[in-house]
Amino acid sequence: MRLPCPLCGERDRREFYYQGHATMLDRPARDAGIDAWDDYLHNRDNIAGEVEDLWHHEAGCGAWIKVTRNTVTHEVSGAKLVNGARK
Amino acid sequence: MRVAGKGLNAHGAPVTFTFDGTTFEGREGDTLAAALLANDVRLVGRSFKYHRPRGILTAGSEEPNALVTMGTDAAQDPNIRATTQEIYDGLAARSQNAWPSLNRDVMAVNDLLSPFLSAGFYYKTFMWPKSFWEKVYEPIIRRAAGLGALSGATNEDTYEKAFAHCDVLIIGAGPAGLMAALTAARSGADVILADEDSQMGGRLLAETYDVDGQAGADWAAGIVEDLRGMANVRLMTRTTVTGAYDQGTYGALELVNHHRTPNAAVPRECFWRIVAKRSILCAGALERPIAFPNNDRPGIMTAGAVRTYLNRWGVAPGKSVTVFANNDDAHRTAVDLVDAGVTVAGVIDSRADAPQFGDYPVFKSGLVIATKGRLCLESITVQHSGGTRDIRTDCLAMSGGWNPTVHLTCHMNGRPTWDDYILSFVPTDGSIPGMSVAGAASGVFSTHGCLESGIKIAREVVLELGLTAGDIDMPSADDSAYRIEPLWQVEGKGRKWLDFQNDVHVKDINLAAQENFRSVEHMKRYTTQGMATDQGKNSNVSALAVLADATGRGIPETGTTTFRPPYVPVSIGAMGAGAQGHGFAPERHMTSHHATLDRGAPMIEAGLWYRPSYFPKTGETTWLESCNREVNMVRNTVGICDVSTLGKIDIQGPDAAAFLDFVYCNTFLTLKENRVRYGLMLREDGYVMDDGTTARLGPNQYVMTTTTAAAGQVMKHLDWVSQALRPDLDVRFGSVTEQWAQFAVAGPKSRDLLNSILDQGIDGESWPFMACGDVQISGVAGRLFRISFSGEHAYEIAVPSRYGASLFRQLCAQAEAMGGGVYGMEALNVLRIEKGFITHSEIHGRVNAADIGFGRMVSQKKDCIGNTASQRPDVVGGEREQLVGLKPIDPKGKLTAGAHLFVDGADAVRVNDQGYVTSVCYSPTLGHDLALGFLLDGHNRHGETVQLVDHLRGVETVCEVCHPVFLDPDNTRAKETSNG
Amino acid sequence: MVKLIANTPCGDLLPRAIGTVSLDEVIVDQITFVAPFNGQQKAVSDALKAAIGIGFPAPNRCIGTGPRAMWCGMGQALVMGASCPDLAAQCVDQSDAWAIVKVHGVDAAAVLARLTPLDLRASEFKRGHTARTLIGHMTGGITRSGAQSFEVMVMRSMAATLVHELTQAAENMHGRETSLR
Known about the structure:
The complex is a heterotrimer of chains A (87), B (980) and C (181). By secondary structure, chain A is mainly beta. Helix content of chain A is 10%, strand content 38%. Chain A has one helix at 34-42; strands at residues 2-5, 9-12, 17-21, 50-56, 64-70, 76-81. In chain A, the strands form 2 sheets. A 4-stranded antiparallel β-sheet of chain A has the order 3-4-5-6, with no helix packed on it. In chain A, strand 5 and strand 6 form a beta hairpin. Chain B is of the alpha+beta class and 980 residues long. Chain B folds into 6 domains: 1-148, 2Fe-2S iron-sulphur cluster binding domain, sarcosine oxidase, alpha subunit, N-terminal domain (Ubiquitin-like (UB roll)), CATH 3.10.20.440; 159-285 and 405-464, FAD/NAD(P)-binding domain, CATH 3.50.50; 286-403 and 483-558, FAD/NAD(P)-binding domain (3-Layer(bba) Sandwich), CATH 3.50.50.60; 594-645 and 739-832, Gyrase A, domain 2 (2-Layer Sandwich), CATH 3.30.1360.120; 647-735, Alpha-Beta Plaits, CATH 3.30.70.1400; 879-972, Aminomethyltransferase beta-barrel domains (Elongation Factor Tu (Ef-tu), domain 3, Beta Barrel), CATH 2.40.30.110. In chain B, strands 8, 9, 12, 13, 14, 15 and 28 form a 7-stranded mixed β-sheet that branches. Chain B is elongated. By secondary structure, chain C is α+β, with helices and mostly antiparallel strands. Helix content of chain C is 21%, strand content 34%. Chain C contains 3 helices and 11 strands. Chain C has helices at 41-52, 108-113, 159-178, and strands at 16-18, 21-25, 31-36, 62-63, 68-73, 76-80, 89-93, 98-105, 130-135, 138-146, 149-155. Chain C is globular, with a radius of gyration of 17 Å. Classes of the chains: A mainly beta (87), B alpha+beta (980), C alpha+beta (181). Chains in contact: A-B, A-C, B-C. The A-C interface holds A 7-9, 11-12, 14-15, 58-63, 81, 85-87 and C 38, 41, 58-60, 73-76, 117-118, 131-134, 139.
């Protein structure tokens, strides 16, 4: 498996750490309430099809990236830096 | 026997080898199978279940029968296919699954019992009593059935793994693969051409076809030479592509040194990961046997294999050969044999309109209905349009047609498509993204068709890569039609074998269908068809056809089983290459590593780091003696310990403090320059992630310390927070763990020691507890932190790593001169338990700040990671297990880590469980065992008595629950400020 | 009076020559980790150029031959072989943090292909290219310094493992070649 790091180019999967669904980017406000936090922390859809998930290029540039990936076909259709400002 | 003048290696040098202890001579270039047949050795093994005599069936990696063991002791390597193993001087092969000998195998009695040993026999028979499953039945069955054995000794052979990258990977170097490679290479693509054979050319090496007016093998050699001369082509022989994986990654096994005398300096095998933008599968086709009664006697082979032995190695597998087929292709075997002067006793062709291509008898509408010969084929019974007759023959070449090698196209869940013209499955387009299929693998069987398809597919591929397709002349070659009629099984008395390796015959498939294992996947598991090391390469399509017939369905509706990687067996040694011994994981060595080893300290692993357990002194016989001495030394004089393994992260920027306040639950904004503060880091779910001290070195500069084990995790977390959650904060951080060698100097004499090595002395006033700052040691800029993980008056001194070894030796010498010395992890652990300091034994991922008594550290004046979740009612209220200290009521009482806690007098069973012990030590300071642990509502139970029970070690000790800080609760030692 | 003696990360483990490949420790006296603050990348690059003649490197690039600037991660570079000027960036001394080994020889790329999943083909990974990647099980950097030369860097504490892995890979390559008939 290979992932397209926006900074380093296409790299072997073993360079990356897998985090999980991109939901993690949408951190609720401190006072958003217990349900919002429960969803954020624990509840995930188990999608058969296109998903956006987070990977850390741990053995590479250190960037956190958001990868668009199909869980059925395994196609990887894109990846973006979660913070595009730095190169 | 050899046929004079035949074979590509006709002039090969003689090679001497042994089989089952007998010495034979073969020729350079022979496979073991070819050399055995040249010496008229036909019986090469016994079958898996019935121990039936078996001979060589094929001439390739699909071989199910001719499996041998090579090497002895630790180098013993079982299940090597004689059909691919090249011979070399001194090669020694042994047959498998036979005792006392291949000719007289005692277990052959199984074959007589076969009416009772049908598919599912084991499941149905060995059911009761249940207690016999593992102790009686399984060992007996395992001994009776099976192939080669491992030695059980550690394998010392060298294996290798490697990565390769290319534009186009071409899998298989037959006519299609060679043309595809030439086309892609001439178009400028970076090409890897991999073939499992030692020589490229595929079927062209085994046939008498001409290509472009040259012998096929010569033509192939010419193309290979052209390719070898191109810088953008990499040729990989003896390399089988074993799997197709996501995003153009392929696995491949290269047999680097199987064909030569074993040599520890040369890797035996290399497992490749090949990354290719595109791939072209040119893996050819595999011939299938026909299921007729007793079709498994040695001497019965596939027709294509007979041709291969004759044409490639100049070996006639019999003196009087017969051919049994349902297709035109098999007639070539008869033609080639006749041309070579070998007797062809007849071609039995199941078709009424069977053709005649040469001077040999043809039996139209012919079927082989019986065979005779105990250890080798002697005669066959043929039923044909003219009646029934027996034919004396010692080799029967059979062909039920050819199956395209679709396996790799199915590795990502693709299913092949049935083709009525060739009566087999062909790959389904797009099964593997980026993979195209050419030649026989795509169902194109003529040489002309293969060459043409190689060119055509490669042109498509290079155009898709944005290259201009190079011009390739189409070589002239045979373009005969492939003519075949269905023939899946022949009625008659005797077992009609399908899976030769797992001893599965037609009746087994019928039984599966009868017992309602009608799905092909169920049939497979019920009968074990296709589950041996050949993975059904010889039997799958035929078995499906039989199942389709038995269940009244068509073959396409019956479907196929799933082909999974690897295509051929891959040794674990190759998969794990380089990971033995020091290669298992990186070893991180502190700068004090050599000095530590010099002092005889046993090392323990802490993450990847190697840290000293203790430093034994002459006369000390146990680790505990050394540990107790080291603890006392720190408590009374001074001790040195390398603490460089702790993660150190330099954090800078205008928003550095705000960033720290977001990742730590407590506050750092208020930390003064040149001061250190303890910090607690939570996960977003409110549980503790890590802890450590952070020093403020300047207005916008901090150095964070993490625990040794969590350094990587914390860095990843900081990256996450900075990039994903708080990109608004202007802060940067980088690891300085490796930059600094850092040593704890702990004990009442620590300041005295430091003052003997610092260029400028320090005192208690200017360096109070939790101070930090720059210092100089013989002109080298270092850092000093007055922090303590022992509870003593202590410091950590850091110098750039290049000076670490030197400073360590001098600190130790100085400490020893003062009556102290160096201490290891065991003493460090005792010192911290006595003080109730936590480690990841305590913050093990299921505790929150309140559980460890730090609830008030979670500042509610600001947001931070884990703030909201740590305030959830169920974790702040409710009954939780909380950190406590435990000491035995009887000072001799033993405490153990991992023990559980119970109310005194309660049954020590799960429902009564009140908590557990995380850390234990013997405290030489207090004279008894100490423990840290978690107890239900523990903070309110100090002074109570609980029962510690360790069922594993048989320990039961009554303990007093106490505050987790056992020693100096006011921290007066660490805070010492005298200037004396 | 103490006297501190400096040691190099690889110490007496190097140099080594195995087959066509030589392994030599690369000593860089000064390495500064530079991470420009928000919006300061151009200013940092200009300041670097003015001070040492090379700017802040683009991702996956290593520039300069005397003093060098080697990209080493998102928004991060190492300034090597020169003292780093004051910059609108986090500047941290990492002079002692890295073990750097030069792998040189006909088989240099083949040796590294036994250890890294990185595509090292000359068409893809040219002189002046650098990458953060895996070397065996270690995280590190690989920089092409010539047609047959690479610099491999890992954390200092892993120097022994780096030498072990490179040696093993080079011995395997050497074994293959000497056994060719």
